[in-house]
Design a protein that fits this description.
elongated, 5 helices, 5% strand, 153 residues, mainly alpha
Length: 153
């Protein structure tokens, strides 16, 4: 990672990208979503304070564990005066996100287990298929992947 001299207090988007590992387009996206912010120079170039590096690291770490950007933005907004997250902030927020992640893991495990059953059925219309046709009313009367007109008796 390129080092930025200590006397430089603001970073260009290219410097921030090189130092953080985030693509320039990702940084622009983060800014549009209110996760980071910049000031504009007289020449309309973005300049980021050095502490933006920590905010970007915080956002990227949260994203890697599956936290949605809206949730990350809410967490950052809770910080006083939009300060940079600290280790203590990360510990507190990650503890709050743990229950959400545990629930997602349970849902993914259920999905994986049902997927195996569904692949085995072949028709995707069994009454037990919870993936492609949950609460299948027609599957109780007729097997197959097509809905055929019912014959009148």
């Amino acid at each position: 990672m390129p080092q930025i001299p200590e006397e430089i207090h603001e970073l260009s988007v290219g410097q921030l990208s090189a130092r953080s590992g985030a693509a320039v387009s990702a940084l622009h996206f983060y800014e549009a979503k209110g996760l980071i912010r910049s000031r504009r120079t007289v020449g309309n170039q973005r300049r980021y304070t050095r502490d933006t590096l920590r905010r970007v690291a915080f956002v990227r770490a949260a994203q890697r564990v599956g936290i949605p950007l809206a949730t990350i933005r809410e967490a950052l907004a809770e910080l006083p005066e939009e300060r940079t997250p600290t280790r203590e902030d990360w510990a507190r927020l990650s503890q709050a996100w743990r229950a959400e992640l545990d629930e997602r893991i349970r849902q993914l495990n259920r999905l994986r287990d049902h997927l195996t059953d569904c692949i085995g059925c072949g028709c995707l219309s069994l009454a037990t298929c919870v993936l492609s046709n949950p609460h299948d009313a027609f599957g109780a009367r007729r097997a197959g992947s097509r809905l055929l007109p019912e014959e009148s008796a």
